[in-house]
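Exercise 7b. Backbone tokens:
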């Protein structure tokens, strides 16, 4: 991954959200900008929003499940786990709120959501997609699958 390009995109995209949310917003802005030239980008945009919402929900469920497992097995590290779970829950809720606002936006209003549509070109969009895909659990454990 080209971390320099990712850092450049993050600097160009304004916003106080976390890194992942900024990249998601930049990718959605790129897709919105180019929907006139390629109608399939509308479906790509909907797919990404749905997938990110699902991933956020799964992350929240895993955090709750791991907290319950820790509660039943061991009580010494409970305070750290609760804090970590609380942070995960807070981050997940902010991401869900962001995605809900994207879902509620009508296609005619996409242009009002654009921050700096000229900051992301095709190559940057491909890089963002690869970076976000590398953050998914399957991509992170792909070497383990290959080894087995």
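Sequence design result:
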């Amino acid at each position: 991954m080209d971390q320099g390009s990712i850092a450049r995109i993050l600097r160009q995209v304004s916003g106080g959200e976390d890194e992942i949310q900024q990249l998601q917003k930049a990718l959605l802005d790129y897709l919105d900008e180019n929907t006139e030239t390629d109608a399939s980008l509308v479906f790509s945009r909907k797919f990404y929003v749905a997938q990110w919402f699902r991933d956020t929900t799964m992350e929240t469920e895993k955090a709750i499940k791991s907290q319950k497992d820790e509660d039943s097995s061991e009580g010494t590290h409970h305070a750290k786990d609760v804090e970590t779970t609380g942070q995960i829950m807070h981050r997940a809720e902010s991401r869900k709120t962001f995605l809900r606002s994207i879902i509620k936006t009508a296609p005619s209003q996409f242009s009002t959501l654009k921050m700096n549509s000229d900051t992301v070109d095709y190559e940057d969009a491909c890089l963002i997609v690869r970076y976000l895909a590398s953050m998914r659990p399957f991509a992170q454990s792909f070497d383990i699958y290959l080894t087995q």
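Instructor comment: Residues 1-10+17-68+84-105 form one domain. The helical segments are 3-12, 19-33, 40-73, 78-104, 110-113, 122-134, 137-140, 142-147.
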